Amino acid sequence: GAGVSQSPSNKVTEKGKDVELRCDPISGHTALYWYRQSLGQGLEFLIYFQGNSAPDKSGLPSDRFSAERTGGSVSTLTIQRTQQEDSAVYLCASSLGGRGLETQYFGPGTRLLVL
Amino acid sequence: GQQVMQIPQYQHVQEGEDFTTYCNSSTTLSNIQWYKQRPGGHPVFLIQLVKSGEVKKQKRLTFQFGEAKKNSSLHITATQTTDVGTYFCAGTDSWGKLQFGAGTQVVVTP
Q1: How many CB atoms lie within 10 A of CB A115?
Q2: Nearest residue of A to residue B104 by CA position?
Q3: A23-43 confidence digits (pLDDT tens)
Q4: Among A residues 71-110, those touching chain B with beta carbons less than 8 Å apart
């Protein structure tokens, strides 16, 4: 594919609602990452998928956050019962393989605003 | 756990000047990557360093990996307004865990 795509590009929701964020990685990339970036801040690692291996969920901030990757391609990040502090840009990245050893290609991000 | 720190957090530069930003890790790294994020954009890969003491250049950008593989630097010469953005380093430890630094936000004054 042309690159990593994410949808929606912007999402405004009310506190307490659930949201789903989607990531389409580059075709053939086995590794997929989710990050969170608050305004003016660095990248906060959330979760990492590599092939068929169990995902590394060590960065998920609470049990309200979950993610899945279907068929080794598209991934969905779900935030349940959203809180105002969840407002941030959620970035997805994919790489050909090999955690940390390959270039990560980032999508444009989903800007989430929780009112 | 591994900590990757970047200094300075902010860098104001006059156009035409040089500056250096630093990336330091609490543990030895397998490799280090640098990314640039333009305002309103997403991080874009710049370069990867793997070998101890490695130095790589991209036009006006010089990247260096320390001899102990625990630190790295990015030096930009003759800064231009197109250099505006946040520069992130990301280090991989020996267990394959990748961690991004908080970034250095660069502002260029014409």
Answers
A1: 10
A2: A42
A3: 999 999 999 999 999 987 889
A4: 91, 93, 98-101, 103-109
